[in-house]
TrEMBL record:
Belongs to the glycosyl hydrolase 65 family. Residues 323-690 form the Glycoside hydrolase family 65 central catalytic domain. Residues 699-757 form the Glycoside hydrolase family 65 C-terminal domain. PANTHER family: GLYCOSYL HYDROLASE-RELATED, MALTOSE PHOSPHORYLASE. It comes from Flavobacterium chungbukense. It comes from the Bacteria. GO terms for molecular function: hydrolase activity. The keyword Endoplasmic reticulum does not apply. This is Glycoside hydrolase family 65 protein. Residues 14-268 form the Glycoside hydrolase family 65 N-terminal domain. NCBIfam families: PRK13807.1. Keywords: Hydrolase.
């Protein structure tokens, strides 16, 4: 770990004490969202020290022109920026004619932040002495409504402690924002219209190029000791992209002055007239009032936790970690809109760009399938189906493929490739496999086969065509090979025959061919419709099968392992335990050339194949490959610890499984990779859930049945989780003596526990 200031707590993320060195990290960790929008935990009042200002709107992006030193054919024309949205939270504050700024106060004490995950709100409180000698106590609560998801609410309380105070509130909305990571230092927002009302204001702006229109709004109420004093702004200042109101109040020592600010965004994705939409949102929020909005928030989060919570007894840090991960996942994606997806930073930062990586299919779908209605996961699959034409276009125009071969983008907002690293964009092609695997995984878990004949079969055909064309026949090996790739381990580029890539390519072809046969038998009308549409013949399928049947996999007979790639054993194989700690993380200490020549592995690669296709390999094969590759893995990807935790548990390496679980669950809270100030690792958080459910719980789906092989770390007294399996809710509770399986409702559910079938209406397994 690289930081240790978050206080252990079962339900809250808590920081105590003000430290300017921690501000940007805390802005990430205390971020809030509601699926439609989100924001970093920036201060509402002005702050003159270093900060990373960030508010974000789901689905809104900007195609920033790619900036490279040497342009290569097929390079993506743009990098899709996750846009810093207009600022609605800002409230400049003057107290006795001095600006409130924590960086310039004479003293700041009793500073405390709390992100209450149970109830879905963020609170900040402190006492401060300004340079003019005025001493104040401040309490600020902010939340983004789950029910009214275009609105956020701030309640900012100020109590003068040593004298009466003249308090001036200057709330504003401002579209004149910039991104931290703009390639060309240009602005992304074009102001269109400003509208001012009595206590409300609107700034409408649109993105350059993409022309997303957004109305940013605010409504202000000034209170004294909790009562609305019905004050109007004394002045209104506005420019083409900003409106700021000024409210002057006088409050006696020991009394409390407050501003309640309702703000948020209405966007052209959902409104023909964004201004009218904003006025409607304000009307709805004001009618409810602060107390009702907060109560609704608490109730909405209670419903989420009822299904998605994981309890851990006896280990507060482990409990805090899993709830933080579950909380952030639910803040990021609600499943309501199939146009949206799960970005790697969610609403916590700008890094990476794009809203979709292979992380969604490989890591996130299991979480949403098991803790939500299956329609949520189906929406994630539909997202990819709707972008199939773009995937075909990407393969054709950027890589020269033909005949409907599809390569899904490494990073995308609208289906177009928009990743700005050539070796990743063109070579990390294994992402195609994760999309096909997600279709299989969805059907395996939900039992809903209808997605495949309706939509999924077209995706599988496009992916199979890609792998068929991407492989080449080696006369020397007398087998098909796949050259010039980057596997999941991004610390090797342009290598040949990455085991995971070759294996999932073969599997994709086999799976696509099997589904074509199944649909032909069970859904003949869909079979004819799809094959006519894509012009697929039986001869072409035979050609696919030749590639799959004769795919080459590099192996070491001496070590009894699959090789990560042809030349892996040619490296200087110094294990991580012998690497000087001062050299870590290597991606921040070494040249890229040195990283690429090293044996060090960023994340599960061969082991990713063992995770997806566990039933294809023996336990002995897993053990040999795990012990070899883990010794060279530096876990500098957020996606790495969860897979290793699951496999360590499967191998009864429980101390190792627990260590990896802590690393994945507290990756951001403890800043393992020294980068949390850039934002949290949202997509890998689903892997934390998998570490418990699939790792310690041993949950698998085989032959339409749930299988469990429960284990428990020695550090815990017990843990529990719920699974929505084919519309039946199963609760699993594990302690050192027994495991209890309980099904909600009257219908029994047959499960397999440690290899034996049991009825889970209420079954207790003695451990």
């Amino acid at each position: 770990m690289n930081q240790d200031y978050i206080k252990p707590d079962n339900w809250s993320i808590i920081e105590e004490g003000f430290d300017v060195e921690r501000v940007k990290s805390s802005e990430s960790l205390f971020s809030i969202g509601n699926g439609a929008m989100g924001q970093r935990a920036n201060f509402e009042e002005s702050y003159s020290a270093e900060t990373f200002q960030g508010s974000y709107i789901a689905g809104i992006y900007y195609p920033d022109k790619t900036k490279v030193g040497w342009w290569k054919n097929g390079y993506p024309k743009y990098f899709a920026k996750v846009l810093n949205a207009p600022n609605w939270i800002g409230i400049d504050i003057e107290i006795n004619e001095e600006n409130l700024d924590l960086n310039t106060c004479t003293e700041v004490r009793n500073f405390r932040r709390e992100l209450n995950m149970k109830e879905g709100w963020y609170n900040r409180s402190f006492q401060a002495i300004l340079k003019n000698g005025t001493e104040i106590a401040v309490n600020v609560r902010r939340f983004l409504s789950l029910d009214l998801d275009e609105a956020g609410i701030i309640k900012y309380d100020i109590t003068p402690l040593n004298k009466d105070a003249k308090i001036v509130y200057k709330p504003y909305v401002d579209a004149g924002v910039t991104n931290e990571d703009a390639n060309w230092e240009e602005k992304f927002w074009e102001p269109l219209e400003v509208k001012k009302g009595t206590n409300e204001a609107f700034v409408t702006a649109q993105t350059f190029k993409t022309h997303f229109k957004v109305t940013t709004f605010m409504h202000n109420t000034i209170l004294a000791n909790g009562e609305d004093i019905h004050v109007s702004p004394s002045t209104i200042d506005s420019t083409t992209d900003k409106v700021q109101y000024t409210y002057g109040t006088i409050i006696a020592k020991g009394q409390t002055s407050s501003i309640q600010k309702i703000g948020g965004y209405t966007v052209s994705l959902n409104h023909e007239n964004t201004l009218a939409g904003a006025e409607k949102v304000i009307k709805s929020a004001v009618a409810l009032g602060y107390d009702a909005l907060l109560q609704n928030q608490i109730e909405a989060w209670a419903k989420i936790w009822e299904m998605s919570d994981i309890t851990i007894e006896g280990d507060v840090k482990a409990q805090q970690g899993i709830r933080f991960n579950i909380f952030q996942l639910n803040q990021t994606y609600s499943g309501k809109d199939s146009r949206l997806n799960i970005g790697p930073k969610g609403f916590t930062g700008e890094k990476y760009g794009g809203s979709t990586y292979w992380d969604t299919e490989a890591y996130c779908i299991p979480f949403y399938m098991a803790t939500k209605d299956q329609q949520v996961a189906r929406n994630l699959l539909t997202y990819r189906y709707n972008q199939l034409d773009k995937a075909i276009e990407n393969a054709k125009d950027n890589l020269g493929f033909k005949n409907g071969a599809a390569l899904y983008p490494m990073v995308t907002m609208n289906g177009e490739e928009c990743h700005n690293e050539w070796e990743i964009t063109h070579e990390e092609i294994h992402r195609n496999g994760a999309i096909a695997f997600a279709i299989y995984n969805y059907y395996r878990f939900t039992g809903d086969y209808s997605y495949i004949p309706e939509k999924g079969l077209e995706v599988l055909i496009g992916i199979a065509r890609f792998w068929h064309q991407r492989a080449s026949f080696s006369k020397d090996k007398n087998q098909y090979v796949i050259l010039g790739v980057t596997g999941p381990n991004e610390y090797e580029n342009n290598i040949n025959n990455n085991f995971y890539t070759n294996y999932i390519a073969k599997w994709c072809i086999d799976f696509a061919a099997e589904q074509i046969e199944k649909v032909a038998t069970e859904y003949p009308a869909d079979h004819k419709r799809v094959l006519d549409k894509v012009n697929l013949s039986s001869e072409e399928i035979k050609e696919w099968r030749k590639v799959a049947d004769d795919m080459y996999f590099p192996i070491s007979k001496e070590l009894g392992i699959y090789l990560q790639q042809d030349g892996f054993l040619d490296k200087d194989l110094v294990p991580v335990k012998d690497l000087d700690r001062s050299q870590r993380p290597i991606n921040q200490k070494w040249s890229w050339d040195r990283v690429l020549r090293s044996p060090y592995i960023k994340q599960a690669d061969v082991l990713q194949g063992f995770y997806f296709f566990e039933d294809h390999f023996s336990k002995d094969e897993l053990k040999r490959n795990f012990e070899f590759y883990e010794s060279f893995t530096v876990h500098e990807s957020s996606l790495s610890p969860c897979v290793h935790s699951i496999q360590a548990a499967a191998l009864d390496k429980m101390d190792m499984a627990y260590t990896f679980y802590l690393r994945t669950s507290r990756l951001d809270l403890d800043d393992y990779n020294k980068e949390v100030e850039e934002g949290c690792h949202i997509t890998s958080m689903a892997g934390t859930w998998m570490s418990i459910v699939e790792g310690f719980g041993g949950m698998r789906v085989k032959n339409d049945q749930l299988h469990f092989s429960p284990k428990i770390p020695k550090e815990w007294k017990g843990y529990s989780f719920k699974i929505n399996f084919r519309n039946q809710i199963l609760k699993v509770a594990v302690n050192h003596n027994e495991t209890t399986f309980t099904v909600d409702g009257d219908q029994d559910l047959t499960i397999i526990v440690n290899g034996k079938p049991e009825i889970a209406s209420k079954f207790v397994q003695i451990n």
